[in-house]
Amino acid sequence: MGKRQLAVALTVTLTAALLAGCASKPAIQYSKSDRQPVLVFCKSQALPPEFAPAGPTLIAYGTGTAYQQKSRYQYLGGKLSARELNDLLSSVVEAGFFDLKADQGRGAPDGVTDHVTVTLTGRSKSVEGPDGTGGAFGGIVKMLESYKIPGATPYAPGMITLHAAEYTGSQPWTGTTVAWKSDPAVLAKAASMGVASVSGATASQIWKQLGDSYDPRGNVAFSAGGKLYEQVYATPVFPLPGV
User: Residue 17, SS3?
Assistant: First the structure.
């Protein structure tokens, strides 16, 4: 091979290497566990729990499994490739997440607070701040709010916590009354104990009915076993260490 041909070959090789390096961000180390989230983004608000945001807006695990909330009782689930997950985490880290103050200040008393937690190998951090915060944290929140899980499909949680209260008002219930479709004993347990853990097909059935009947004003009560229950709501339970 002549000098000119060698120079051309080296140029092509170096260009290909540079392009390959730009194709994805440097690898980030994290646990490949399906019980340890590497990214959790959620919102909270100081409202009665049946009206407050519930469950993560976006949660992703080191295996690539991810879930995303579209509305109170509507989730999507999907699987990120190793590259897609790495790029998502890199985008958050490169935006300066680990340099942020953990507390970004307080907003209005009844305002929404954003929470972001990133757990990598050797370092973990949680940051919270009022919705609409500017700067780096605000940019990270906007990015996570607009993120779409590739190929996501509807998902019903296999485990939920169910809350309920028996209606004991002196006046007849004036809102909407819906017949409870699932096991009435589960609803009665939630009302007597304040909360009940439900899993499997029963959890999915309850989740669907609550979604179909949801009224953000709270004007829905459920009838079961000759009783009426109000303040009925559920929160999804996602895998966590020890859960």
Answer: helix
pLDDT in tens, 103-124: 998 878 788 999 999 999 999 9
Return mean pLDDT, the chain: 88
Quick: pLDDT tens for 220-241: 999 999 999 999 999 999 988 7
By the 8 A CB rule, do 157 and 76 touch? no
Report residue 238: phi and psi, to 5°.
-105, 150
The whole-angstrom separation of Cα 152 and Cα 243 is 24
Q: Give the three-class secondary structure for 123.
A: strand
Specify the 3-state DSSP secondary structure of 84.
helix
Contact by Cβ (8 Å): 104, 137 = yes
Distances (CA, A) of 110 to 64, 130, 145: 34, 10, 20
CB atoms within 10 A of CB 99: 9
In sequence order, the β-bridge partners of residue 30 are: none
39 and 118 in contact (C-beta within 8 Å)? yes
pLDDT tens readout for residues 22-32: 455 678 999 99
Phi, psi of 174 (to 5 degrees): -105, -5
Cα 84 from Cα 67, distance rounded (Å): 14
Instruction: Quote the CA–CA distance of 187 and 40 in Å, as a whole number.
Output: 30
Structure-block tokens of residue 79: 């699987």
pTM metric for this prediction:
0.85
Spatial separation of the C-alpha atoms in residues 92 and 60, rounded to whole Å = 13
8 Å CB contact between 132 and 138: yes
